[in-house]
Amino acid sequence: MSIIGKNYIGFSQSADNAKTFQSYVPVSDSHLSEEFHPATPEEVQRTMQLAEKAFDEYAALPAAKRADFLVAITEEIMAMGDELLERAHQETGLPMGRLQGERGRTVGQLTQFADLIREGSWVEARVDTAQPDRQPAPKPDLRKMLVPIGPIVVFGSSNFPFAYSIAGVDTGPALAAGNPVILKAHPAHPGVSDLTAQAIVKAAKRTGMPDGVFSMLYDDGYEVGTALVQHPHTKAVGFTGSLKGGMALYKMAQERDEPIPVFAEMGSVNPVVILPDTLTAQTDSLAKTLAGSVTLGAGQFCTNPGLVFTVESPALKEFEEKYAEEVGKVTSMTMLTEGIRQNYFKLRDAALAEPEVETLVLSDEKVEGENQSQASIARVSGKAFMDNPNLHEEVFGPFSLLVVCKDMEELQAALWHISGQLTASLMADADEAARYPQLLRLLSRRAGRFIMNGVPTGVEVCPAQHHGGPFPSTTDSRFTSVGRDAILRFVRPQSFQDWPDSLLPDELKNANPMGIWRLVNNEQTKEAI
Amino acid sequence: MSIIGKNYIGFSQSADNAKTFQSYVPVSDSHLSEEFHPATPEEVQRTMQLAEKAFDEYAALPAAKRADFLVAITEEIMAMGDELLERAHQETGLPMGRLQGERGRTVGQLTQFADLIREGSWVEARVDTAQPDRQPAPKPDLRKMLVPIGPIVVFGSSNFPFAYSIAGVDTGPALAAGNPVILKAHPAHPGVSDLTAQAIVKAAKRTGMPDGVFSMLYDDGYEVGTALVQHPHTKAVGFTGSLKGGMALYKMAQERDEPIPVFAEMGSVNPVVILPDTLTAQTDSLAKTLAGSVTLGAGQFCTNPGLVFTVESPALKEFEEKYAEEVGKVTSMTMLTEGIRQNYFKLRDAALAEPEVETLVLSDEKVEGENQSQASIARVSGKAFMDNPNLHEEVFGPFSLLVVCKDMEELQAALWHISGQLTASLMADADEAARYPQLLRLLSRRAGRFIMNGVPTGVEVCPAQHHGGPFPSTTDSRFTSVGRDAILRFVRPQSFQDWPDSLLPDELKNANPMGIWRLVNNEQTKEAI
C-alpha cells in the first residue's frame, strides 16, 4: 500500500486544504516526501455529521458483527507486514523490535475487545422483575445495561504509534462499545497513521460497517483538534500526552454548552520507594532493575520512574555507585521528535542546576544520528526535595532523581509533596512493608497501580490492570485506558422499564439468548428468566 | 430530642457565627423559634481537616463495621418516631403520609447499602495470576478492586427532606464505600436536618466510627457550599436541585487546581410520547394516569412529566377533555418554599402567555393556607413548540404542556429539540412501538430511563434502576443516584501488582475470605485461588 496523505472521512478521501506538512525523520533530522493535508473546518463538519449519521446503525449492530470488524482490523494491520513497521521506525526512531512488540500488543488489545463483546457480559446487565401485587404500590419491571454514547474523538499520541494511536487503546474499546470513532492523527507519525487508517477502512468495508464508523483527520497544529472537541456531535475524548495538552482539551470540553468527558492521560513521575532492609539485601539487583526501567525506550513512557525515594543507610553508597554505573553504560537512543528531545534536555538541565542537586551520572555511549537522548540520574536530600516544587514535576525522558531522606519519617513527609500518579512502587518484603502501614496508605492514595518489588514500566494488558491514576496523572481516576475496563469510558447505563420482551436488547431478554452473566433480582446468574 | 441549631463538626458542636436563621413554615408563611448558625470559614476548615483525618481510619474498617454503622443510622432515625416526621411536615408542607413513605425509602436505601457491602462483590474484584515463565516476558500478578476516594460533600435538597438530604441517596453510598461525608444542610428544612444529623452522630458513636466520619454544616446563603466545594480535601460532590445551582457547583469544581467530579441532578422535563392507536384504545385511563403523575406532590419531582407529545387523531379531543377534567379536580397543595411557589407561577404564567399556547385547565380546588400550588395544563402545536425554545425548559411544579403534532414525522422532528432527560416514556403496545424504530432510538439517546406504558414519577430503588440521564438532566450520565450502583460515584479502581497475599485487602486475597464474586483469569467465580 502507498501513503495517500488525504483525510479519511468515512470511506471517502478528502484534501481540501492547499497547505500540507511532511513526516519528520528524527534520526536524520530530515523529512519524507509525502504530503499530508490538514483538515479544513468544512471537512471537520462533514466528518462529524457522517459519524453522527453512522452512530444509530452501528450501535444497533449485533455485538458479533462489531467483533468481526475488530478482528478484520487486526488482519488488515498484520497484512501490511514490514511496510508498516518500517514506516513507524522512520517516523519515530523506535527500534524495530519494540515496534513489532507494540504492534503485537495493539492487535492483542483489539482481539481482547472482540472476545469481550462476543461473550457479552461486559454490559453489566441487571434485571429486576415486576411484582404487580406488591403493597403499597406494584413494583415495575426494570432492566439495565451499558449502551454506547455517540461519536468519540481520539488523539493519536507521539510515543506509541500503534498501541496509543490510530487503532489503539481508545479506538478499540470505543468501537467495541458501538461508537463511531474520529481520529486526530499525531503529526509526529502521519505516515503510519495513514497506513493504519487504510487498514481500518478496508476492514470496515469488508465487514459491512456503515460509512462514517471511522474517520481520520490530519493536522500539524491545534485547529482540527479544537474543532473536534468543540463539535456538538462529539460525546467523549481520548487523549494521551502532556499535562498542558490534556488540560487544554479538558477545559475546552467543560466549557461546551454540553460538557463532555475527556479521558486524558497526562504524565506521572511514578515514585519508587526503597525500604532500607531491602536496599541492603538487594543492592545490586535493585540498581540494575531501576537503571533498566529509567532508560527503557529513552524514558519516553508515562510509567517512567522519575523519582526514587530511600533513606540514609549503610548500603546506600554501594547502591548509588552501582546505579550510576548501570545508567552510565546505557547507549543513547533516538528520541521521538526534535521537540521532545529539546524539552528533555531543557528540563533535565534545569533539574540538575537546582540547589543541592548532585549529578550521579550522565551516560556517554552515543550512537550515530540526530536527536539522541542521554540517560541521566541525580540525587537530592529529602529536605531539599520538599523545599523545591521544581523537583516534583515530570522530566519526560531518561532522567530520574534519587531522593535520599534522613529517615522514614522524612521519607513519608516527602511523599506528601507528590501529586496523583499512574503508579507507585514499593521495594520491600512483606515484613518490612507491614511495619509502615501509614506509608502504604500514603502511596495508595496517590496511585492508580501500586506495585510491590517491581518497576512501573511494562503495563500488562489484562482485566485487573488499572492504567489511570488520581489527578493530575489523568483527568479521571475512575477509568483505565488499558485492559477490558477501558470500554467503560465510552458507555453509559440505561434502564428499560416495563418493556415488552420482544423490543428489549438481546442482553436483557428473558431467555438470555447471549448466555451472559446478569444480576437478576440481585443474584449473579446466567439462567434465563 | 430537641433541635440544637449548631454545626455538627464530627462529634462536636460549634456555633461561632453570631448570625442565625430560622425554619420557614410554608403553610402558615411564618418562622419557627429555633436559631441555626451558618458555619464560618474557620468551621469549614476545621470540618474538612477532621474529615481528611478520619478518612484513612474509616476506609480501613472492615465492611461489616461500616454496615453496622449504616444500620445503626436507620435505627436512630426510626427511634425518633413522629417527632422527625412532624418537623419535616412543618418545614416542607409535605403530607405526613408522603413523609412516612419517604422515611421508609430512606431507611430502606441505607439497609440496601449495608447489605451490599456486607456481601462485598460490589468492589468488582479482578484477579490475574502471575505467569512467571511466559515468553518473551513474565506476566506479573495483578489484582484490582474499587476503593474509596476521600471526603465527599453532599448538598441536601429541598424536595426530599429524607431521601435526598442528610441520610439520603448520596450520604448512604458515600459512607458505605468508606468515605467521610460532609453535609451542607438545605436551609428549607434545617430542623429535620438537625435531628437527622443527631441520629447519624449517635449511630457513629455507638458503632465506634472515627470522629469526623460525618459532619453537617448550616448556611442560608452560598458561602459554606462554595468553601466546601473548593476545599482541597473534598474529592467529590453530590447535589440535587436546579440547573443553575448544579452548574455553578460543577464549574467551581472544574476550576479547582485539582478538578473533582460533581454529581448534580438538575431537572428534566421527562417527555411522554403517546402513539395514536394507544391513545384511541386507552383514552380515559391515559388521561387519568397522566393527570395523577403531573400533579403528584404538587409536581415537585425531578421526574415530573412536563411535556406530553402526541399526534392529531380522532381520539385526541376526548383525551384532552378527560385530561383537563382530571387535572381540574386536583386539590392544591402547599409548595415547599415561597421561592419555589413564586418561581412556579412565574414560569407557568410565562409559558401560558407564549404564542399559540392554549390553556386546557387550571385547577380551582383550594385548601386553606399559604404557598398553595395550582395544577395547570396547556396545549401547543408541534410547529409552535419547535419554533419556541422557551417551551422546552422545565417548569418546576404541577404544570405540563401537551404538544400536538400533525403527524409522526413532525413528532419525531419535535423530539430533536429536547435535550438530555432523566426519563422518557412511550405509551404504546409492542406492535405499535415496533413500527417506529427511529422514534425508539431518538428517545433512547435522550433518556437515562426509558419507560413503556408508564409515567416517570415513582423511582424504584433497585439494582436495575438508573436515575441519571444525559446532560443537562445530570452532569454525568454515567452514574445513578438511586440503586446500588450509586456507590460507583464515590470510588475509583486501584490495581495491586505482585503484592504479598498477607498485605492485600480481603477482597483480593487468594483464599477469598469474604466469598465474593470475582473475575479470576477472566472467569466469574467465587472460588479461592
List the helices and strands and how they pair.
The structure is a homodimer of 529-residue chains.
Chain A: E1 7-9, E2 12-14, E3 24-25, E4 30-31, H1 41-60, H2 63-79, H3 82-92, H4 96-119, E5 126-128, E6 142-148, E7 152-155, H5 171-177, E8 181-184, H6 190-206, E9 214-217, H7 223-230, E10 236-240, H8 243-254, E11 262-265, E12 272-274, H9 276-281, H10 283-295, E13 307-311, H11 316-328, H12 338-352, E14 358-362, E15 376-381, H13 382-387, E16 399-405, H14 408-415, E17 421-427, H15 430-434, H16 437-446, E18 447-452, E19 491-497, E20 518-520, E21 523-525
Parallel strand pairs in A: 5-20, 7-8, 7-10, 8-9, 10-11, 12-13, 12-17, 13-16, 15-16, 17-18
Antiparallel strand pairs in A: 1-2, 3-4, 5-6, 6-19, 14-15, 20-21
Helix pairs in contact in A: 2-4, 2-5, 2-6, 3-4, 3-6, 4-5, 10-11
Protein name (chains A, B): 2,5-dioxovalerate dehydrogenase
GO molecular function (chains A, B): oxidoreductase activity, acting on the aldehyde or oxo group of donors, NAD or NADP as acceptor
InterPro entries (chains A, B): Ald_DH/histidinol_DH, Ald_DH_C, Ald_DH_N, Aldehyde_DH_dom, Aldehyde_DH_Superfamily, ALDH_KGSADH
